[in-house]
Amino acid sequence: MKTEFNAQSTTDDVLAGVDLTGKRALVTGVSAGLGVETARALAAHGAEVVGTARDLAKARAATVGIKAAFELVELDLASLSSVRACADALVADGRPFDLVIANAGIMACPFARTADGFESQFGVNHLGHFVLVNRIAALLRPGGRFVSVASSGHRFADVDLDDPGFERTPYDELIAYGRAKTANILFAVEFDRRHRERGVRGAALHPGGIHTELGRYMTPETVERLMKPLQERMAKGTTDFQWKTVPQGAATSVWVGVVADADEIGGRYSEDCRVAAVIENGDATQGGVRSYALDPERAKALWAKSEEMVGEQY
To answer: Coil, helix or strand for 108?
Structure first.
């Protein structure tokens, strides 16, 4: 697939000349950062956008500049009762979607459990979205897409289907983040397999390195651990890593969601507005995707484990 876009492209670059009139999108996590920019860009090009947030007052303040058709709904991904209530309301409303972007998430936080007892990063980043997206999947029109905002942080760890809650494994905030981000990718892989025959695709992406609220829980020690390999490569001149602005970070979300060819991105992982290569070495500040995150059998196993954990089958 040819593309004119790259790591420096912004949402406005990617959507230049694109008319989304008549399209309807759902974006989770619109109280700050990438979610706000993603919703703004889609709405600016004519889409009707539904944004979700745990803190509606914060989200209203953050999205005040979105002048087009925009609606806010409450969603706390750390509570399956909230997730189910949100999904049920959307289904009862009955209006279809062309795009669902699972953008919300938390990163490298101290050990905690969700309202349902799940380790918080796995619970919020994966299981909350797993229930929401599956409950509203029938609302996605043929030609629609589910986009999972993952991370190069998936390189920290594969999912652990035997101990997803760190009940037997010592907790490590970056390992937990890696498991959750790998789960985000595997979810998109299996979703794509299950829905592509009806013309609905699933895809995952890494937005890039962006300074947003996502890193608010990270201690100085965690930041040092994360950034040390990058700093060493920068000192040697062996990396072209650059921090992105928020509009640059959200660009891959809208590229995967409405611009890229569906057959090229379906079941795949993209970064910098292009499908990423499978690369088995390097750390989490480097590009590419690990093969375990795209493994179809691993994706099926995670789906089954997730159904078991949330007590629902899809």
So the answer is: coil
Query: Within the chain, what is the greatest distance between any pair of CA atoms?
Result: 57
Q: What's the pLDDT tens digit per position in 8-47?
A: 999 999 999 999 999 999 999 999 999 999 999 999 999 9
The residues assigned a catalytic role are 177
What is the CB-side half-sphere exposure of residue 218 using CA atoms within 13 A?
19
Nearest to 127 by CA among 153, 148, 109: 148
Q: What are the angstrom distances between the C-alpha of 244 and each of 4, 7, 74, 92, 281?
A: 18, 8, 29, 39, 23
Question: In angstroms, rounded to a whole number, what is the distance separating the alpha carbons of residues 155 and 203?
Answer: 17
Look at the pTM and tell me if it is higher than 0.90. Answer: yes
195 φ, ψ (degrees, to nearest 5): -115, -10
| Residue found by looking up tokens 């979205």 in the block | 129
CA–CA gap between residue 96 and residue 269 (Å, rounded): 25
